[in-house]
Design brief:
Length: 275
C-alpha cells in the first residue's frame, strides 16, 4: 500500500512574481512536504531577476538541493516538459534534465509529447517520440531516474493514446505522471483511467477543474496549465486517493497544480482532511 504525500508544483507562485527561493519557502510555510520545480534551458530575464520561479539548468543543481533542505522540504520531481515530437528540442533538453535531477537528488522528471510539428503524420510523430525516449532512457536508467509521461497533448489525451506512447520503449525507467485535471478535460473518466494505469503510476499532478471550466472546455482541449483549488471542482479526491493507496509503491506524491498561493493553501487543507 502506497503512502500519499502532499507536494506542490511551483506554478502556484507564478502570479506573485517571486523567485524560486521565495516559492519554496512559501510551500514549506503552507505545510507541503514536497515541491516540484520547473526547469528551463539557457537564461531569461524574469528568473534571473528573481521575478519567476523557474530554475535554469545552467545553474548549479545544488541550488535546488540547498534551498529545499534549508526550507525543510523535498523535491518529488522536476517539471521538465518538452515536446517529444520535436527531437531537435527534446533529446538534449530531456537528457540534461535527467542529469540535472540526478545531481540534485530528484528521482523523477516529468514530460509529455508536446505540440507536434505542423507537417508530420501521426506515424512519423510516434517514430520521433520513440527516438527521443530511447535517448532519454539511456541516460536515465544508469542513474535510477524515472521519466513520468503525462497526458497533456494531442495523442496522450486518451487512454489508448497514452498507452501507445508508454509502449514505445520497453524500460522500467518510464512511468506515468497522472494528471487528474488533464485526464478529465480530455473527456475520459479520471478514476477509471487511473485504475487502468496504476501499475505504472510514479507521480500524480493533483489538479482540480472548476465547474465553469469543465462545462466550457471538456472534450475541447488537451489539458490546462493549472486548475482551481483541490476540493472546489469536479475531481473525486476520495476515489483518487483510494486508487493511489492501492499502488504497489512506497509512496505517491500528489503535486498540487493550482494558480495562486491562496488556492495552494485551500488545496492542502482539503487533501489533508481526506488523507
Amino acid at each position: 500500500m502506497a503512502r500519499i504525500a502532499l507536494g506542490v508544483n511551483m506554478e502556484f507562485a507564478r502570479h506573485d512574481d517571486k523567485s524560486f527561493e521565495w516559492s519554496v519557502e512559501k510551500a514549506a510555510e503552507l505545510g507541503y512536504e514536497y515541491v516540484e520545480p520547473m526547469v528551463h534551458w539557457g537564461r531569461e530575464l524574469l528568473s534571473e531577476a528573481g521575478y519567476f520561479h523557474s530554475v535554469s539548468m545552467l545553474d548549479d543543481p545544488y541550488r535546488i538541493k540547498r534551498i529545499c533542505e534549508k526550507a525543510g522540504v523535498k523535491v518529488s520531481a522536476l517539471s521538465s516538459h518538452t515536446p517529444l515530437c520535436k527531437p531537435e528540442i527534446s533529446v538534449e533538453y530531456l537528457k540534461q534534465a535527467v542529469r540535472f535531477a540526478y545531481e540534485c537528488g530528484v528521482p523523477i522528471v516529468n514530460t509529455d509529447e508536446g505540440p507536434k510539428p505542423a507537417w508530420t503524420t501521426e506515424e512519423e510523430d510516434h517514430v520521433l517520440m520513440r527516438y527521443v525516449l530511447h535517448e532519454a532512457v539511456a541516460v536515465a536508467e544508469p542513474r535510477g531516474i524515472e521519466i513520468g509521461l503525462e497526458m497533456h497533448q494531442q495523442y496522450s489525451k486518451t487512454i489508448a493514446g497514452l498507452d501507445r506512447i508508454y509502449g514505445l520503449v520497453d524500460s522500467a525507467a518510464i512511468g506515468i505522471n497522472f494528471d487528474t485535471g488533464n485526464s478529465f478535460l480530455g473527456g475520459e473518466d479520471p478514476v477509471a483511467w487511473l485504475e487502468h494505469c496504476k501499475d505504472r503510476l510514479i507521480h500524480l499532478h493533483a489538479k482540480d477543474i472548476s465547474i465553469g471550466q469543465a462545462d466550457a472546455e471538456r472534450g475541447k482541449v488537451t489539458g490546462t496549465p493549472v486548475g482551481c483549488a483541490c476540493g472546489e471542482g469536479v475531481t473525486d479526491w476520495a476515489k483518487i486517493i483510494e486508487v493511489c493507496r492501492s499502488v504497489d509503491r512506497d509512496e505517491i506524491v500528489f503535486s498540487v497544480e493550482c494558480g495562486t498561493v491562496e488556492q495552494a493553501a485551500r488545496s492542502i487543507e482539503h487533501l489533508r482532511a481526506l488523507i
